[in-house]
Write a structure and sequence with these properties.
elongated; single chain; alpha+beta; 2 domains; ERH-like fold; 5 helices
Length: 159
């Protein structure tokens, strides 16, 4: 089978994520002629696996379902019992989780003061952590999980 330029570009971008290539060059493997399940079953299986991955990625890209990069927001609360880790796709998502944490613990950790309800969530969270003893908000940051690049290199901070 002859691959299109678009399919070759997909292999350049995402080929490093393919695990079932038999250590073959993916383009060469898929384009290898004359291979059938009757004369070389293992290679035919590898061809099918690689081609199906290329076609799946191609379809996801056409439907706009495959982002060029993916980031998450991470917050870590350190407290006397250990730590809580909160993760969300957006800053608002992780702030909602932290706000729920603050609501749950405000009365027992700051009993002499009523939790403010007229402030933005971020301000309430900041106030809480500025008033509680050894408990602290360790990190609140955006982290890029994976970012594909046109040259086939991969910035994968999860490895």
């Amino acid at each position: 089978m002859k691959l299109s330029d678009e399919q070759k570009s997909i292999i350049t971008e995402y080929g490093h994520l393919f695990n079932n290539t038999g250590d073959n060059d993916i383009v060469e493997l898929i384009e290898r002629e004359g291979v059938t399940y009757f004369n070389n079953g293992p290679v035919a299986e590898l061809q099918g696996c690689c081609l199906s991955q290329v076609m799946l990625i191609q379809q996801l890209k056409h439907e706009g379902l495959l982002p060029e990069s993916m980031s998450i927001w991470v917050a870590v609360v350190e407290h006397r019992h250990g730590q809580n880790v909160y993760v969300a796709r957006t800053e608002y998502g992780v702030l909602d989780q932290l706000y729920d944490y603050v609501q749950e613990w405000w009365d027992s950790e700051i009993p002499d003061e009523e939790m403010p309800t007229d402030l933005p969530k971020k301000e309430v969270i900041d106030q809480y952590f500025s008033k509680v003893g050894p408990e602290r908000l360790e990190t609140l940051s955006e982290t890029t999980l994976i970012e594909t690049r046109k040259d086939g290199e991969n910035n994968d901070s999860s490895r």
